[in-house]
Amino acid sequence: MLTSTQESFPMSRPFVKKLITAVFILTVITACGYYYKQALKNIFQRVYLEASWLNKNYEPERSLKELLPEDLSLPYVLHQSDIVKTELIQYGLNRPWSLEVIPKKGLLITEVPGQIRYYDWTTQKLSYISGVPFLINSHRAHLFDIAIHPNFSENQQVYLSYAVDNGKGFHSVEVAMAQLDIDKLELHNWHAIFQSTPPVKSRKHFGGGLVVKDGFVYLSIGDRDDRSLVQDSSTSIGKVMRIPEQGGSGEIYATGFRNPQKMTLDNVGKLWLVDHGPKAGDELNQVIEHKNYGWPDYTSGTEYNGKQIAPSRVIKNHIKPRFTKDNSFAPSGLAFYTGSEFPSWQDNALISTLVATHLKQLVLTEKATVEHKHMLDLKLRLRDVEVDPSTGIIYILSEGGSLMRLSRSTLNL
C-alpha cells in the first residue's frame, strides 16, 4: 500500500463546528442581498477547502503511478543515467506552485488553494505552516510565490505574492511580509506592503515572481490579459516593480512582460526571469533597470490561431530575449546552478517547463546559449526548480503534486 509522510492540516476547532458556524453566517449574509456575493463565495470556498483537506487521498499523480511499486517507500529512484539520479521524495501536494530553499534546513512550498508547506531535510517530513490568512483561489487568481529575506536566519522575514479581489470582481497582485518561525511552523505579523495598479477584471496573467535583494523586493507582474496597459508607465501592469522591503508604492524597474511567473538571481547577483509568451514566444530574460522587453509591441511569438501579434519595431531601450524557441515550452521555474554535486554545471540556467515536461539546462555565454536536457521526461508538468547552494542538489516540483530530487548518479561510483 502506498504510504507518505503527510501530516494533517492543523485546525483550531473541529470541522463540524466550523461548518455549523459557516451555515449560520451564510444565512445572515444571504439576507443582506447581492452586495455580499463575494463574501458568500469566500465562505463556501473555505468550507470546501477544509473538507477537502480532511478527506484528501494523498496519492502519486497518475502519470507516475505505473512507475511505482505497490510497497512504495520514499525516497524512490525514478531514473538514473550516467550523470543524474532522479528520486521521488514526496507526493500528494495540493496543486503546488513555488519552491523556496531555507539554507541547511529545508524547502518552503506554496499551494494554489492558499497553503504553505515545509519539507524538512532532516526528518524528511512534509508539514503545514499555520498562520496563513484566507486567500482567494479563483481560476488563475491564487497564492503565487514565496521568498525569504537574505538575512532570514536573523530576522525570519518572508515575502509572499498572491491575487486579491477588490470586492467588485477586479483583481490585483499583492505582496505581503510576515515573520516565519520555522521551528514552530508558524507565520506571524502578516501585512501587505504593495498592491499592483490598476485592478483588472481578468483573472489571467498575474505573474507573481519574487526576489529580495539589497533592501528591495522585486515583483514581476503580467499583462493581466490587457495588453494596452503594459507600455503605459502610469500602471504597474506588465512590469517588474522594485519595492522597499518594508513596503511602499514601488517604482518601475523594467517594462514589457506578458506573464513572468518566476524570477531569480544568478550567482553574481544579476536579476533574471522567465516569461510565458504567446505561441512560440516563451522567453528567458536578464532583467536590466529601465529596459523594455517589448511586449506586446515586439515578440517572436504569434497568437494561438497563428496570426501575427506585432511586427518587429524599434522600441526605446528594447532588450531582446536571451533565450527563446520556435515552439512553446511554457517556462514555469528558474534557478542558476551552484554547488558541488555537479561541478561542470556551475552558473548554468535551469528552467522547469509545463508543456515541454522536462528540465532545461542552458549554458550561457556572451556569444551563444547551448541547451542540454539531463532529466528523464516523465511526462510531468514541472512547476518549479530550486538548488540547495550548500550541496548543489536540485529540487523539482511537478504541477500534479510531486517533489523530486536530482543528485549525482551512483552508477559509476
Major β-sheet annotation: 5 strands, antiparallel
- Low-pLDDT parts are none
Specify the overall morphology.
globular
Q: Reading side by side through the largest sheet, how are the strands ordered?
A: 1-2-25-24-23
Q: Helicity range of the residues?
A: 10-25%
List the total number of helices.
4
- Rounded to the nearest angstrom, the radius of gyration is 21 Å
Q: Which class of secondary structure composition applies to the elements?
A: mainly beta
In what range is the share of β-strand residues?
35-45%
| C-alpha termini separation | 32 Å
H and E order: HHHEEEEEEEHEEEEEEEEEEEEEEEEEE
Mean pLDDT: 88
The strand count comes to 25
Structure, described:
- The protein is mainly β and 413 residues long.
- The chain contains four helices and 25 strands.
- Helix 1 (15-31) runs antiparallel to helix 2 (37-55).
- It is globular and about 60 Å long.
- The two termini are 32 Å apart.
Offer a quick outline of the entry:
It is built from 4 helices and 25 strands.
Jot down its keywords.
413 residues, 11% helix, mainly beta, five-stranded antiparallel beta sheet
